[in-house]
């Protein structure tokens, strides 16, 4: 059994290089275990795989697959690298495999890539900066809890958007710091390391409460898109229970003290396309 | 009035505009200066308990208005409190929210004060200040006042990503009745004017020239129709949408179920329409734009010019065209696959990709998370054919209704899937 230890939990380039070597050396998936500093090999680590000639034959890999694989490699599933290598191994004999979205392992990989994409999207959406004064000037600091290994991949989004600010994104897995020149990554942090409040949050809650239409209460639809696990880090979420409790009274008042005549349908469990 | 009280009032007054889209504009970022970015995909930064996305700071500049539209909370004759933001206040608020990653940008609308031109100028000033003085690169949606001067519309397009003019009601008769100061010909004229500018700017972007192309609302224009405030049926509504899409190349028509407002006019119906009606209209709208359906076909799924509230419009259509089914999953064309209830465009493309290498089975559809109960009566696959007589049985409709989670799903998908 060989052990491959990658540089970081989402080290896709490292995985590609190792996979190329393993394929060249003809080492089957069941003879390899994959690790990263966050998922150490432990006591029973095997030796690293042998070095192989660089020009070893690699099956051609569709670009779509590579994109999906890179995303799936950020998933927190400890089997992600083994799954990827297994597919690559079998693709040597079954050229259509990596283009068959209905194949069970391909479907699993796609689900992983989708979960990572959603996690990234939720990070772009639900991360909230709080501004603090530091001796070097104002700094924007956010605390976010991603489900997968996405901080390195998504830091660029915040750099492109907030290049003019100086910011820090703290998460339990990794932290990213921007001072105007380059992004620096560091070890994970604790929630207590982030500021606890921001003066603008009151105004933001005022907005959130006012833009909500009490005549259309659909809490399931809200929770489907903004699951409760995110609420503890969203400054506006703390007023949601009060908004919901007050809704029917506000509607009755609008209708001139009449009770609401139209029962509201419950929201969908999951939104999807027909 | 302090800023917080103004914000409460002017956000409350803006929430009847359904659009909160922040997608589909040009790509920009702040690495060369400025603040903000747009990367094509819209971002919903929060969801309110009404299930709607909060993507933009959606407010009115003022809720004072010289118009008296019966369905509108801000109409002249309503006795709501009035307020007005200064340009400076709005700019500061937008930037403060944006820097903290609460929003994608600003959706600014306004009651009409003094004149259409004056109001439009005020809206433009906010957008221009954000862009020019603060290097703001986030998303800006400006509501356009239809009878404002053409040069004001042209300037609005320079600063905004999206412009919109609300058509308000599906029939000119209802507009006369409920919004007497509004004029359909004027609305169409302004939409035509915008669509001309949008097409021109798009063309200029495609043609490489040394001069920078004139920028004009790269995310296009949209509109909104109020559902259930008049007696228009779904035929009127979808017919109007279809015509607007074809004539003015609109990005979106939003349907806003008429919502009870404080101090309502006596001209309005006493009860709001079911939220489900709005949802069915959004589904039908998708079939029009992405599934190759014609308005008449969609309406044929319902009765008397109304969509079937109990079933989604594609399923309703299929149940009335059973002779076209079952379709062979491995032989049917893309167009035909798109007509199978329960199959969305993405999954149709996955099926087309998979069947180049091996035949696609019902079990494969399960892995693609296709609702099997809904598709299975309508398809043939190597491991599946519909039970004898199922497709012709009178009970099929009832069978497909049974779970009803779908029929209950009153949430329009306008936000996550906006294009």
What does this structure look like?
Chain B: It comes from Teichococcus coralli. Chain B: Residues 49-294 form the Radical SAM core domain. Chain B: Keywords: Iron, Iron-sulfur, Metal-binding, S-adenosyl-L-methionine. The complex is a heterodimer of chains A (274) and B (419). Chain A has 274 residues and is α/β, with parallel strands linked by helices. Chain A has three domains: 2-120, no CATH class; 127-193, no CATH class; 201-254, no CATH class. Chain A has eight helices and seven strands, in the order E-H-E-H-H-H-E-E-H-E-E-E-H-H-H. In chain A, the strands form two sheets. Chain A has a five-stranded mixed β-sheet, with helices on one face. In chain A, strands 1-2 form a two-stranded parallel sheet. In chain A, helix 1 (12-24) links the parallel strand 1 and strand 2 (32-35). In chain A, helix 2 (63-72) crosses helix 4 and helix 3 packs across helix 4. Chain A is globular. Helices cover 38% and strands 9% of the residues of chain B. Chain B has 16 helices and ten strands. Chain B has helices spanning 3-12, 87-99, 116-134, 150-159, 172-178, 184-206, 234-248, 275-290, 295-300, 313-319, 334-337, 345-354, 362-367, 372-375, 396-401, 405-408, and strands at 46-47, 53-54, 56-60, 105-109, 139-143, 162-164, 221-227, 252-257, 327-328, 379-380. In chain B, the strands form three sheets. In chain B, strands 3-4-5-6-7-8 form a six-stranded parallel β-sheet. In chain B, strand 1 (46-47) and strand 2 form a beta hairpin. In chain B, helix 4 crosses helix 6 (184-206). The interface between A and B is large, with 72 and 85 residues.
Determine Rg of chain B (CA atoms, Å).
23 Å
Helix run count of chain A: 8
The helix-and-strand class of chain B reads alpha/beta
Largest sheet of chain B: 6 strands, parallel
CATH class of the largest domain in chain B: Alpha Beta
Distance between the termini of chain A: 47 Å
């Amino acid at each position: 059994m060989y052990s491959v230890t990658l540089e970081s939990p989402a080290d896709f380039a490292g995985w590609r290089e190792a996979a190329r070597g393993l394929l060249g050396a003809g080492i089957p998936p069941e003879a390899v275990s994959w690790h990263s500093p966050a998922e150490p090999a432990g006591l029973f680590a095997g030796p690293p795989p042998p070095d192989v000639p660089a020009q070893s034959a690699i099956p051609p890999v569709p670009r779509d697959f590579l994109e999906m694989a890179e995303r799936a490699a950020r998933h927190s599933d400890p089997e992600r690298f083994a799954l990827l290598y297994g597919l690559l191994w079998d693709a040597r004999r079954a050229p259509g495999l990596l283009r068959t979205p209905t194949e069970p392992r391909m479907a699993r990989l796609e689900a992983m890539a989708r979960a990572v994409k959603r996690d990234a999207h939720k990070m772009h959406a639900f991360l909230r900066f709080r501004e603090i004064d530091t001796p070097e000037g104002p700094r924007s600091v956010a605390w976010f809890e991603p489900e997968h290994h996405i901080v390195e991949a998504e830091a660029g989004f915040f750099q492109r958007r907030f290049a003019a600010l100086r910011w820090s994104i703290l998460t339990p897995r990794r932290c990213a710091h921007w001072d105007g020149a380059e992004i620096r990554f560091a070890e994970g942090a604790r929630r207590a390391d982030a500021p606890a409040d921001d003066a603008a949050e009151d105004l933001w809650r005022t907005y959130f409460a006012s833009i909500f239409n009490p005549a259309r209460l659909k809490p399931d639809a809200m929770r489907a898109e903004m699951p409760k696990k995110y609420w503890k880090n969203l400054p506006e979420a703390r007023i949601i229970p009060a908004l919901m409790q007050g809704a029917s009274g506000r509607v009755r008042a609008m209708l001139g003290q009449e009770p609401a005549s139209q029962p509201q349908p419950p929201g969908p469990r999951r939104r999807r396309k027909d | 009035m302090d800023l917080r009280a103004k914000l409460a009032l002017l956000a409350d007054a803006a929430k009847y505009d359904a659009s909160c889209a922040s997608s589909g504009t040009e790509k920009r970022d702040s690495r060369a200066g400025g603040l903000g970015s747009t990367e094509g995909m819209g971002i919903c930064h929060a969801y309110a308990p009404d299930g709607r996305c909060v993507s933009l700071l959606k407010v009115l500049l003022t809720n004072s208005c010289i118009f008296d539209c019966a369905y509108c909370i801000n109409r002249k004759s309503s006795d709501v409190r009035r307020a007005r933001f200064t340009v400076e206040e709005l700019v500061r608020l937008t930037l403060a929210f944006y820097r903290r990653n609460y929003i994608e940008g600003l959706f600014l609308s306004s009651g009409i004060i003094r004149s259409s031109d004056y109001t439009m100028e005020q809206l433009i000033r906010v957008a221009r200040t954000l862009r020019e003085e603060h290097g703001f690169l986030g998303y800006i949606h400006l509501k356009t006042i239809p009878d404002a001067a053409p040069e004001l519309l042209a300037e609005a397009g320079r600063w905004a990503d999206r412009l919109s003019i609300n058509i308000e009601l599906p029939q000119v008769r209802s507009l006369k009745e409920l919004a007497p100061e509004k004029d359909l010909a004027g609305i169409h004229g302004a939409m035509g004017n915008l669509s001309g500018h949008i097409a021109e700017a798009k063309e200029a972007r495609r043609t490489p020239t040394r001069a920078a192309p004139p920028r004009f609302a790269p995310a296009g224009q949209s509109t909104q129709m109020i559902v259930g405030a008049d007696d228009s049926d779904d035929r009127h509504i979808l017919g109007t949408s279809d015509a607007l899409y074809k004539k003015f190349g609109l990005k979106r028509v939003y349907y806003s179920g008429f919502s009870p407002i404080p101090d309502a006019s006596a001209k309005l119906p006493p009860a709001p329409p079911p939220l489900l009606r709005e949802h069915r209209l959004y589904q039908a709208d998708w079939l029009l734009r992405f599934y190759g359906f014609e308005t008449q076909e969609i309406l044929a799924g319902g009765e008397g010019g109304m969509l079937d509230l109990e079933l989604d419009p594609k399923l309703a259509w299929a149940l009335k065209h059973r002779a076209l089914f079952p379709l062979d999953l491995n032989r049917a064309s893309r167009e035909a696959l798109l007509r199978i209830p329960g199959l969305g465009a993405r999954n149709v493309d996955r099926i087309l990709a998979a069947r180049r290498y091996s035949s696609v089975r019902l079990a494969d559809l399960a892995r693609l998370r296709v609702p099997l109960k809904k598709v299975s009566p309508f398809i043939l696959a190597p491991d599946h054919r519909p039970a004898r007589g199922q497709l012709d049985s009178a009970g099929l409709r009832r069978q497909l209704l049974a779970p009803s989670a779908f029929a209950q799903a009153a949430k329009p998908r306008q936000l996550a899937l906006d294009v």
